[in-house]
From TrEMBL:
InterPro entries on file: MoaB/Mog-like_dom_sf, MoaB/Mog_dom, MoeA-like, MoeA_C_domain_IV, MoeA_C_domain_IV_sf, MoeA_linker/N, MoeA_linker/N_sf
Entry EC no(s): 2.10.1.1
Location of the MoaB/Mog domain: 187-328
UniProt cofactor(s): Mg(2+)
Pathway participation: Cofactor biosynthesis; molybdopterin biosynthesis
Cross-referenced PANTHER family: GEPHYRIN (PTHR10192:SF5), MOLYBDOPTERIN BIOSYNTHESIS PROTEIN (PTHR10192)
Role: Catalyzes the insertion of molybdate into adenylated molybdopterin with the concomitant release of AMP.
Family: Belongs to the MoeA family.
Pfam families the UniProt entry points to: MoCF_biosynth (PF00994), MoeA_C (PF03454), MoeA_N (PF03453)
Keywords, comma-separated and alphabetical: Magnesium, Metal-binding, Molybdenum, Molybdenum cofactor biosynthesis, Transferase
Catalytic activity: adenylyl-molybdopterin + molybdate = Mo-molybdopterin + AMP + H(+)
Name of the featured protein: Molybdopterin molybdenumtransferase
Amino acid sequence: MIELADARRTLLAACPSIAPVALPVARADRCVIVADVVATHAVPPFDNTSVDGYAVQAADTVTATQDQPVHLDVLGSVLAGSVADRPVEPGRTWKVMTGAPLPAGADAVVMVERTSARAGSQLGAAGDQVAILAPARSGAGIRRAGSDVRTGETVLAAGTVLRPAHLGVLGSVGAREVLVYRRLRVGVLVTGDELVTDGGELRPGQIHESNRAMLMALLVRANCEPMDLGVASDDVADLEQRLRHAMAACDVIVTSGGVSMGDSDPVKAVLERMGRLNWMQVAIRPAKPFAFGVLDGPSAPVLVLGLPGNPVSSLVSFELIARPALRHMMGHVEPYGPSVLAIADEQLGRPLADGRTAFLRVLSRIGPDGRVHVRPVTGQDSHQLSASASADALAEVPDDRTVQAGEDVLVYPLS
Ligand SMILES: Nc1nc2c(c(=O)[nH]1)N[C@H]1C(S)=C(S)[C@@H](COP(=O)(O)OP(=O)(O)OC[C@H]3O[C@@H](n4cnc5c(N)ncnc54)[C@H](O)[C@@H]3O)O[C@H]1N2
Ligand code: MOO
């Protein structure tokens, strides 16, 4: 058996690289950017007002009180998107709306609530007078040019995993497209003669298929574009035909089933004929068997990831081995998910010492101490998917020990 860390290292080293692509900003969420993004202009591009109010010279307002307001002549109104056509001079003011350019000559904006003109009032035409009820500090109510982003500043560094606010930042500096590692197109092929996909009556020996929808959803959550390759029967010709079709359309093919020691595993037979595959026995429970290889696709190399068929094994294999490889190909500097040091609320035992690190499915909660607490779900066998579905994390329990209630344990949130 091979340790998980070694299996992951070997796999990551074998992953083909993917050419970057320029995506419209609105379609780039969760992608990793390839190069630094440098602002070609300042944000905001000009001094502007942060409130609805009156742009003034602060010196004019020093004596203003509720009882003895300062009266200023209104030059007109400036809306966001328009510009004042003359400066503010002593005794004068422009009514300004949030985001409007600060008129020249003004050094403060008095909120409309601190004037005799209440919010929503129409007062703001040239010739009106407004009463200022409180003094304004110089600089109040003003957002300076470049106070968010300076010209020439690196707003996003290469390697950033884009989140919604980053897309906003790209918009704010005028970027329409961004160079990213693109989402991988990943074909999902489940295998097994016993699998029924149409929800119909089960004949003796048959079971309903469960892994395809699960793996496709896991891929979406990993920011990939899954492609359903259907269910291959244990017929070699059918399988080969499906795989060849997939190689033309996909960057990666994920298979489920047929990677253990079974006599008639067609996946093994076909993949071995198409390229060199690495068959691994990873020292983890579940998800021991795993296969991978790089096939010569018609236009580019195609990575094949062979997950075990047992549904829980498939899930755990994806989380611990396949997803890091996909993330690596999509430019993630940190391909592995986050871990949390949690407290075991119950004993996290293992049925037998078999040289494999157990990844028990656990349910987490935040305790009154503010820390993450976990307890195992009931049903830890690799066919007991319904039990695992109620878990939200994997707890790592080394082969040679049991984690006692109250002890710390490393956990990995599930997708
Ligand atoms: N002699 C040995 N036998 C097994 C070993 C071993 O080391 N020596 N390893 C076991 C482990 S661990 C696992 S995990 C499984 C992996 O088996 P395969 O990847 O070859 O998967 P299959 O044999 O095709 O299926 C296993 C099991 O899962 C069911 N299955 C498969 N695909 C689906 C699906 N899409 N939906 C629902 N259920 C599925 C299948 O019917 C089998 O019951 O091997 C052990 N054996
Ligand atoms: O690795 Mo298997 O997943 O133990 O059942």
